[in-house]
Specification:
Helix content is about 35%, strand content about 25%. It has about 190 residues and is of the alpha/beta class.
Length: about 190
């Protein structure tokens, strides 16, 4: 069986530049690998990471979301939706059609608005024990990724830490690694 790192390299995803992500994804995702998980990936570009997830999770159903059209080939386990992740009305329509996710991977616009709106809209649809992953957190330190009046991506995630202690939102834990947060929902 291929490791996630081998599949990332095989499918030439942009995640191959962030192998530290893969180490943690392997740790968190491997117990789910043979289960019929439902995955949402925000930001699919050309679909290379979708190909990776389809091979890594042989029983998964996957929804890919991007603001631009995706040329990814058809697969019966994959659905693509086109729209803006910072548009809560669009996200509500996605959730109506795909109501539950075991894993969400936010590799989309990376702005504070995108991260906050997506998390707040999608988190209620993450299953008990599910995972919500936010990639490329270095963007929190770049002014071009910040909408004035909103917390930075890191400030938002730090607020989620308070939610753990206040027992809000059903957050079990938050794992931080270089440029990545993995938020676990209570089982």
């Amino acid at each position: 069986m291929n490791t996630l790192q081998n599949l990332v390299l095989k499918h030439k995803t942009d995640k191959s530049h962030h192998l530290n992500f893969i180490k943690y994804y392997e740790e968190y995702f491997s117990p789910l690998r043979e289960k019929p998980v439902r995955i949402l990936e925000i930001g699919v570009q050309k679909g290379y990471s979708i190909a990776t997830w389809l091979e890594y999770f042989p029983k998964a159903s996957i929804v890919g979301m991007d603001i631009n059209p995706s040329p990814f080939p058809r697969d019966p386990r994959y659905a693509f939706v086109q729209g803006d992740q910072s548009d809560s009305k669009f996200l509500e329509s996605v959730i109506r059609h795909h109501p539950l996710f075991d894993i969400v991977i936010d590799d989309g616009g990376h702005t504070n608005e995108c991260v906050i709106v997506s998390f707040n809209s999608i988190w209620p649809s993450v299953t008990a024990g599910g995972l919500y992953c936010i990639e490329d957190l270095y963007c929190a330190y770049r002014p071009s990724y910040q909408r004035p009046g909103l917390p930075t991506q890191m400030e938002f995630i730090k607020g989620l830490l308070d939610d753990i202690n206040n027992e809000k939102r059903g957050i079990a834990s938050i794992h931080f690694s270089h440029e990545l947060a993995i938020i676990s929902k209570k089982a």
